[in-house]
């Protein structure tokens, strides 16, 4: 009996602690980028500046997790617990969905009033706009991205130098470099065949055969799948495995292990996204490394980063806009780039970190030519898992390239027909 | 985990009770197999420990299986600070203990009515409770969310406590009522003859006999609630209300994971349940054995 009284007291305590809320003006802001990431570092300093500018406001920052917002983002936004400003995953299924449910405030007025239109070009705001169905590309501006991301080949400069090889600028040169490493008994490419980087390699290869019409149709789910680029990509990947450019084990490997092969100096090349930059920057001590783009005519796998969005119940819209402006300002863009991030609006001349400098200029190059091809899993809900599974099957040899593209086409065309 | 420990518990009991007449070579085979199983069970803990005390650079060179070249508490410290771990420990403890107590109480009342009271349609009630165990949590998350919002309990620990006290008691009711069904009627009849009412029978006759089983059920409720992820993740929005299991999500980003950081988080995350289990191990084995002998 004593126990239950104790428990009741505890329950009551829980209730009251949950209800205590500050009465003064509070600015609630959330993001889920890691505190050590380039974005995390720059944003927390920007937040310090916001605090200094408004001593009368209590700034309440919470470090969220990607998993939490992915699992319950729309539930949180649909409640009074939503903050005044938060980072939200870009794309139709996430930011698009909550904007179409009316859970966000449009930022069209702020876009011009705050001068963001002068900082961001057309390509940088494609994923900021969602129509009433939640499809990106047109409609109101619901969020602002202040950084970029793209898939590129990370390479071990020391190993390239030792082998007397240069950075490839065409697919043929890339394959020639592969061959040169293989002759020396080195497996050139680390590949997470059972993980995200597998499908990013597939898409990078497919985009070498993609034109504007193909990308727009593909990402916009506008026509049944034209499989030619994927067939080329699948055939190329199968050839790479057959020629020994990729380890046989990599069919079942995840990205952490593949990245590890690169970081430990075993594999000279690893194709993955710029989210690896921070990790490589701080953990690779034994050799010099760099990045080159998979040679494509126009489109690269990549996109602008996650969005700042303002929930409909935000009580501090001005502060939210001021903070977005801060994170877009040259000062914090440069700081982000110096921490190894992909700045979207920094002046490359002011960036001292070679990693961030290169990333910012490459991203600018892609974005200026409107060459962000986005990710291959975006058009169809659940396509991410389909691609993971089918790419693994392709690399293991359980399906031929022809069967592989037929399987993709079936899933894609189903979704296209029933949209 | 539960199954392994249960069977180990009854094994040791059996060893105490019977002195085998002679040592057959078979014993060595059994010992060998058990050692192998033990190593297999301990392996994940071993991995968590060696990677938690590695630096990220060390991991980058040697991978997950290599022994650390130096002992570094950086990851552990970082996780403790980033997640505000002491706060999360208190939250998890409050939620789990309260759920364990209330869950056991509800189970006891239900089981008393079903097992000893023999209420009408008790079988149907049991089936309904069983359904409660079998329903996947994903399917009830949205209704729970709307109910919590309607009652103003969204983002409070009380919501999680109520939900789990009910969910856990479904299993508790099932287990305890099958124990109570075989409760010797004579004892109850004797107590009633002495003038005890139902309330007194419950607290002065049934509970003392049932105590070991109640402890076991409570211990399981505690551990299960401690390890729950989805519903706390959805219900507890503010960092200050979150539990240890939810905090462990910090180690996995959108595209990246940090293996040494994850190892540190899992080590810190399992340590409290492990401690709790070691402390209550005797209660657990005793409770299970009591059930078995009867």
What does this structure look like?
The complex is a heterodimer of chains A (419) and B (294). In chain A, 48% of the residues lie in helices and 11% in strands. Chain A has helices at 2-19, 38-53, 66-77, 92-100, 108-113, 116-119, 157-162, 171-183, 196-207, 212-220, 228-242, 255-263, 277-283, 317-328, 330-338, 354-368, 383-396, 401-417, and strands at residues 26-31, 58-63, 85-88, 129-130, 140-141, 144-145, 148-156, 189-190, 269-273, 289-292, 302-304, 307-309. Chain A is of the alpha/beta class and 419 residues long. Residues 13-22 of chain A have low confidence and may be disordered. Chain A has 2 domains: 25-147 and 305-346, D-Maltodextrin-Binding Protein, domain 2, CATH 3.40.190.10; 149-302 and 374-417, Periplasmic binding protein-like II (D-Maltodextrin-Binding Protein, domain 2). In chain A, the strands form 3 sheets. Chain A has a 5-stranded mixed β-sheet. In chain A, strands 7, 8, 9, 10 and 11 form a 5-stranded mixed β-sheet that branches. In chain A, strands 4-5 form a two-stranded antiparallel ribbon. In chain A, helix 2 crosses helix 14, helix 9 crosses helix 17 (383-396) and helix 11 runs antiparallel to helix 18 (401-417). The longest helix of chain A has 18 residues, at 2-19. Chain B has 294 residues and is an all-alpha fold. Helix content of chain B is 77%, strand content 0%. Chain B is built from 13 helices and no strands. Chain B has helices at residues 2-17, 26-52, 56-62, 74-82, 85-116, 122-134, 137-150, 157-181, 185-193, 198-227, 230-235, 244-247, 259-293. In chain B, helix 5 packs antiparallel against helix 10 (198-227). Chain B is globular, with a radius of gyration of 23 Å. The two termini of chain B are 24 Å apart. The A-B interface holds A 3-4, 6-7, 10-11, 13-15, 18-19, 32-35, 37, 62-68, 71-72, 75-76, 79, 81, 89, 196, 256-257, 260, 263-264, 273, 275-276, 279, 282-286, 306 and B 56-57, 59-63, 82, 94, 97-98, 101-102, 105, 145, 149, 154-158, 161, 230, 233-234, 237-239, 241, 246, 249-250, 252-259.
């Amino acid at each position: 009996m004593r126990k239950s009284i104790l428990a009741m007291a505890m329950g009551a305590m829980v209730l009251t602690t949950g209800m205590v809320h500050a009465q003064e003006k509070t600015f609630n802001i959330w993001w889920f980028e890691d505190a050590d990431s380039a974005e995390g570092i720059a944003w927390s300093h920007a937040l310090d500046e916001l605090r200094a500018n408004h001593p009368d406001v209590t700034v309440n920052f919470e470090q969220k997790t990607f998993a939490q917002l992915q699992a319950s983002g729309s539930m949180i936004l649909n409640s009074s617990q939503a903050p005044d400003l938060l980072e939200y995953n870009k794309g139709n299924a996430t930011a698009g969905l909550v904007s179409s449910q009316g859970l966000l405030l449009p930022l069209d007025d702020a876009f011009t009033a705050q001068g963001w239109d002068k900082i961001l070009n057309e390509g940088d705001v494609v994923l900021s706009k969602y129509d009433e169905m939640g499809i990106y590309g047109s409609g109101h501006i619901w969020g602002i991205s202040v950084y970029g991301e793209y898939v590129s080949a990370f390479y071990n400069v020391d190993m390239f130098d030792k082998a007397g090889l240069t950075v490839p600028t065409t697919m043929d040169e890339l394959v020639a470099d592969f061959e040169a490493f293989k002759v020396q008994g080195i497996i050139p490419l680390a590949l997470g065949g059972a993980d995200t980087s597998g499908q990013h390699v597939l898409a990078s290869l497919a985009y070498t055969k993609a034109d504007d019409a193909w990308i727009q149709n593909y990402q916009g789910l506008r026509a049944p799948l034209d499989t030619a680029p994927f067939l080329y990509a699948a055939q190329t990947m199968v050839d790479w495995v057959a020629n020994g450019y990729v380890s046989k084990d990599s069919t079942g490997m995840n990205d952490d292990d593949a990245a590890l092969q690169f970081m430990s100096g075993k594999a000279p090349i690893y194709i993955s996204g710029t989210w690896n930059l921070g990790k490589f920057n701080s953990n690779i001590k034994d050799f010099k490394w760099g990045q080159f783009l998979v040679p494509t005519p126009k489109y690269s796998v990549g996109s602008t980063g996650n969005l700042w969005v303002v929930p409909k119940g935000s009580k501090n819209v001005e502060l939210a806009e001021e903070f977005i402006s801060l994170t877009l300002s040259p000062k914090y863009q440069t700081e982000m780039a110096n921490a190894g991030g992909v700045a979207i609006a920094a002046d490359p001349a002011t960036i001292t970190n070679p990693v961030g400098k290169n990333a910012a200029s490459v991203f600018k190059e892609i974005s200026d030519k409107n060459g962000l091809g986005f990710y291959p899993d975006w058009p169809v809900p659940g396509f991410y898992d389909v691609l993971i599974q089918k790419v693994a099957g392709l690399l293991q040899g359980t399906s031929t390239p022809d069967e592989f593209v037929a399987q993709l086409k079936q899933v894609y065309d189903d979704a296209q027909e029933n949209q | 985990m539960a199954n392994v420990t249960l069977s180990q518990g009854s094994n040791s009991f059996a060893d105490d009770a019977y002195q085998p007449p002679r040592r057959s070579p078979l014993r060595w085979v059994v010992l060998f197999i058990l050692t192998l199983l033990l190593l297999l069970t301990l392996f994940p803990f071993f991995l968590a420990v060696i990677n938690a005390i590695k630096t990220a650079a060390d991991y980058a060179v040697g991978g997950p299986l290599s022994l650390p070249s130096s002992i570094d508490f950086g990851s552990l410290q970082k996780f403790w600070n980033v997640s505000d771990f002491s706060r999360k420990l208190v939250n998890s403890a409050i939620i789990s203990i309260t759920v364990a107590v209330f869950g056991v109480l509800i189970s006891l009342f239900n089981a008393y009515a079903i097992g000893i009271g023999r209420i009408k349609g008790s079988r149907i009630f049991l089936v309904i409770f069983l359904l409660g165990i079998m329903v996947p949590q994903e399917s009830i998350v949205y209704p729970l969310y709307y109910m919590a919002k309607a009652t103003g309990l969204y983002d409070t620990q009380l919501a999680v406590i109520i939900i789990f006290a009910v969910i856990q008691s479904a299993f508790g009711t099932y287990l305890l009522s099958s124990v109570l069904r075989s409760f010797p009627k004579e004892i109850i009849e004797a107590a009633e003859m002495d003038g005890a009412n139902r309330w007194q029978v419950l607290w002065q006759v049934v509970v003392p006999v049932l105590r070991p089983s109640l402890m076991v059920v409570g211990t399981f409720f505690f551990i299960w609630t401690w390890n729950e992820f989805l519903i706390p993740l959805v219900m507890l929005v503010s960092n200050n209300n979150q539990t240890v299991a939810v905090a462990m999500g910090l180690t996995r980003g959108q595209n990246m994971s940090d293996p040494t950081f994850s190892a540190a988080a899992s080590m810190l995350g399992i340590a409290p349940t492990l401690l709790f289990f070691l402390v209550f191990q005797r209660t657990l084995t005793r409770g299970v054995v009591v059930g078995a002998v009867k």
